[in-house]
Description:
Oligomer: single chain
Number of helices: 12
Shape: globular
Strand content: 15-25%
Structural class: alpha+beta
Amino acid sequence: xxxxxxxxxxxxxxxxxxxxxxxxxxxxxxxxxxxxxxxxxxxxxxxxxxxxxxxxxxxxxxxxxxxxxxxxxxxxxxxxxxxxxxxxxxxxxxxxxxxxxxxxxxxxxxxxxxxxxxxxxxxxxxxxxxxxxxxxxxxxxxxxxxxxxxxxxxxxxxxxxxxxxxxxxxxxxxxxxxxxxxxxxxxxxxxxxxxxxxxxxxxxxxxxxxxxxxxxxxxxxxxxxxxxxxxxxxxxxxxxxxxxxxxxxxxxxxxxxxxxxxxxxxxxxxxxxxxxxxxxxxxxxxxxxxxxxxxxxxxxxxxxxxxxxxxxxxxxx
Length: 317
């Protein structure tokens, strides 16, 4: 893991030093409503939860990872005051523990982790907090100094550093938007460590960086995003969700980037291209490389029947 820390530090330094103009630094972005203060690199302070003030800026890392099915320690209405004093590292699943360690080693004081920065649970306070914070997810990843992807972990317990396995995160619905909106992204994958920013892509097994055009969709013009929307939806529909009700919220940030007063967005489609967006075909869920056809689920709660978002599984146009 020391090699991983050194490699990430090297790639980050190269981006900050040599990619002026294409890769904004994002050192003074508006902070999310809550962040975890990881403490100084010497470990003299336990991590703690911080509620930021309106307009407060800073540098923070965002974590993109799979929750999985096993329950783990999260922020609750009942423990918020306790976590503002100290977050017990021994209670955290390995992926979150590793991400906090990485932030501390790189000297980045704050990290945003959804399970520690959004109140979890089914009580009134938690539901209201999710309604508010879920609408800001796109801003969180756009404003991050860089994003850490736990690409090789199928749940929160598997960590950033582990034996090589297939990359489950690339199948997760929320991770699709998180990766596209991130300015810089370091991915702890199943086969190797990799890096993407606005100017280049680097891999652990390759000695040289590969220069390429925009890796983040936020750099595209809104018109281009709308023009490519059905292609985006096709790729996005291959992803899976812990909660099927997240299907539209998990792509809402991208939709906001493409929306204009002249071309509004409704249930997964843009008004000015509504006809092509109606011409979708349901392919079903992907199970073991094959399409498994399933019925429309609870469409009245999620989306009207004309929308691709009313069905589970993949679609094409």
